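#dry-run=false #mode=assembly
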Amino acid sequence: MTAKKIPLLDVRNLTVEFKVQDGLVRAVNGLSFKVYDGDIIGIVGESGSGKSQSMLAIMGLLAGNGKISGSVKFMGQELVGISTAKLNKIRGDKMAMIFQDPMTSLNPYLKISSQMTEVLMLHKNMSYKDALAESIKMLDRVKIPDAKNRVHLYPHEFSGGMRQRVMIAMSLLTKPKLLIADEPTTALDVTVQAQILELLRDLRKEFGMTIIFITHDMGVVANLCDRVNVMYGGWLMETAAIQIIFKNPIHPYTQALLATIPSLDHDVDKLKTIPGEPPNLLQLPAGCPFQERCSQVSAACTQNIPLRRVENRHVVKCANSNGVAL
Amino acid sequence: MKKILEVKNLKVHFELSSGLFKPKKVVHAVDGIDFEVFEGETLGIVGESGCGKSSLARALCGLNKITSGSALFNGIDLAKATAKQWDEVHKQMQFIFQDPVAALDPRMTVAEIIAEPLVTLYPNMKQTEVMEKVFSTMKLVGLSQNQVNRYPQEFSGGQCQRIGIARALILEPKVLICDESVSALDVSIKAQIINLLQELQQKLKLTILFISHDLGVIKHICNRILVMYLGNIMELGAKKTIYSDPLHPYTKALLSAVPVANPELEKAKVIQLLEGELPSPVNPPHGCVFHTRCPLASEACSLSRPTEKIVREHSVSCFKVN
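#status=ok
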């Protein structure tokens, strides 16, 4: 986890906008962060915080009405504005994505074998026979029992946890440098979730993979991640190593978010709440999107707020924080 | 404390449609459980998907049929209740669903939605009185009166859940059954609704059956906790001791799998990973239903079903716990 000079993924000022009937939705607003080799980064936020859209933008998977600006550099190569043909060589090969609901990502009409071998035949020019052998090996690796026979089953013949394993195996076939996981365990039971998290940790060790893990569960972040990006209303509010963010959160939103979670390790009589509701992305206020719900709001919150570095690799976007503007 | 609900050997089975000459298949969703609910308490029901917690809740509300056994509520056996008796039950026992948006009819206004139980069960009530109750209930759950003529799609998930709670409370029930009622909500909204439920419980002296897979929420809101696995009760006990001193191997595994929002605790923690998959409720294992995945299982566990015993004030069904 030592910080190398060139980050694997360098996102600068990424903005994602959607034209909808009622106007312009800015789902991601000026997002900048870096991911270094071997890190597991958690991205947390509520619905509408832009956590998924920012990752879809990086993968070039935005919906047709989406517009992207800013810069995304992956292994030194700019991805924004690149042709689909070039992008197709990178995604699926050097970076892969897994989604919350494996059933909607797997083709129900095709056997697992044909869906998995396709990846290898396309990206690695393998023969079907080699690709099948490799697929079985990978299914074994993610602990699917009897992989040899089960590779010929259809997706519906697997349970939810097993299907998610199939998705993970499929995304790992090309040994990608970067795996983006969008709430892969949210729909699963805690015992199955524990198995999948364990698996991801093992796979990182084995393949030296970098993982971006989108979740809304701070417990999962504490369990799996090295660093965390907290997002709200399209903004990156705070980013730091997890030891720091859980002990010394600076942004009022991060503080409030951590305080609202009913926890297993301590008891409270009454949960702290964040008043109000997440903002309507069509009518965002000027300045900080959290200002209407913030307990420490001031006049400066409606102004343009810079990202500030509080200490090394701990960056906050709050008008009332100290630190060096970036 | 007074018993408000007494469940004995309750079974909820579902028959799967099968061909003329195929053997009948039966899903054993709830397979013979016993428990009691006391007035004013919050009983948490936890377990993973497929453990039968929702089937149980729905059966208690008349949304599923009870196959056998009994559930005594206010002198009425829900297993044999007539339609008229169910009306009486529904006046006192109401249900709050998981998906707040799907639970509301998009073609009805908020007033119509909240008034519906009242209009159905008290058809002779005057319109003015109904509206009065609608307004007072809306106030109770934190909705403003001027939203009364709006439609569900104009509300956020959290507000829709408030409407769902208002609809359940307008009959002034004694018992609320909440089936994953906060699971679909965002973290910041979840805390608001949990606090609302707790306030309402104190104000209205409600008894709550709170079903969830979120052990953090259960721990915060419940007095006693019932742990289910594959249609059976594994362990039942006071919240404090279930979390600090779980006895059943399944409870232990379940609790250890919950990630805690504290990196230091997470690093130090040893997770007991359960091997394999949940067996099918169509063919539940013989003996203890958990023995196929239990780290402590021995041959005896596969032969007969363990009976409930009281150990350190927990009721626990396991041969290996003394």
